[in-house]
Amino acid sequence: VIPNKVLTSITVLPVSQSIPRYTFPTFTVTAYYDDGSSEIISPSKYSILGFNSAILGVQNVTISYTEEDITKTASATVEVTPMQITCPICGHIYELTPDNIDTGCPVCNEVLINISASPTYIIVEKGEELNITVTATYRSGRINIISDWTSDFNNEQLGTQEVTISYGGKTTKITVYVVFQRKVCDICGYEYDLEIDGSDSGCPICRSTIIGITTEPKEVTINKYDPIPITVTATFRDGHTEEITDWTSNLPIGEIGVFDVTIRYQDFYDNVSVTVIDQGLIICPICDTQYYYRDSPRGCPVCSATVVGIEAYLKNGGTKVLKGSNLDLSVVLIYQDEHKEFLYEGYIITGYDPNLLGEQTVIITYNEFQTTLIIEVVESLQIVQCPNGHIYYLNPDGTDPGCPFCGAEEDSNLSEAIFYIDITYTDEILELLYENEVIYLEKGDYITIKITKNKKTYTNGIVTLFSKKDWYNKIFIYGGEVI
Questions:
Q1: Which residue stretches of 419-466 are H helix?
Q2: What's the rounded Cα separation, in Å, for the pair 32 and 75?
């Protein structure tokens, strides 16, 4: 019987080695026996103790082999190195970080491709530096924020500049607008730029934000189909106002009556009262009577026919009456529309005694209206004639007051003078004017009236008796602004 050989020792080669992370070392293990023989042990028959493939660095490991209940061991060192990757761009092999992160190829990471700046348009105040972010892009795809870039920016030059940003031989451009100063709006808090010259044109937000509208006037009267003659004013948040024209309304088209109309602009509105009348319909401003001009060419049929008072004066223009003579009066009716007409009959005179010398208070009555006239009954009327042929009276003491006619012609201020002229309405003329298109005058229009005196009138006959000069044949021209 041949006795079994006895294991005496083992050896391990290599005694030290380096391997990538997450891989396992390989050894050549040789077993030695007491009969002097040896053999290489299969890796499946020995064990590696004390090794962790995930831990980087040098590890001391023990190789153990057991045969016929005899166990022998040997020591070795294994260095676990980081994992490696080959750059797909340049082929350089580099290690991952201890956390297995690929930071990119160290060769490609240093090759600068381009730079960029953000924002590409910036507003700065005079003397202020650029507040931008500059990033560099490398061949590996790595993007890095850089701070040591340079530029040709001039922060003292007001206005717009095209600024070049430079780094590592690469450049990019941005647009910079340098303003004198910036301001924060006291109303809305928006920060805006002052003008280049330092002037403040106001907050652009508040300057363009409407907070309400108003309309003037609040009451208007228009003909059917006419536009509404109002002014619409918008008030903005900064307090300024502007007239607007593109407003709208809900006025019914083609309807007649009084309407509460809503004037709207954007989201704002105001109300006005609009009275719509038929074409040619007139509303009397005194009594609100509505009438058509074709039916009442002399004006409001109520006011033009309603007497509200009378006035009277001596036709000779003075206050003296010759003893024993009748009163030669001009009595004038005052109508509600303020026009006046002479009254030739129908009035009553009381309080006058033609034979009583001295001052008398005369009462003139017409229907329910009365007026008083203070006159003086005198023994004689001293009459003189001026060089221009005008007849007038001397003062009671015989002094000459001067010709009142010539004085009136020379006086440029005739605002207190009252002229009464006989008016004859010719219905045929008025009707013809209306049919040929009447022009309605409005406030602000100008009118000229030319009047030629009629020699057949009662007034003309009186003037003829007392005047030798043919001044009464003059053509009188009146005119002015319609108010």
A1: 427-435, 458-466
A2: 16
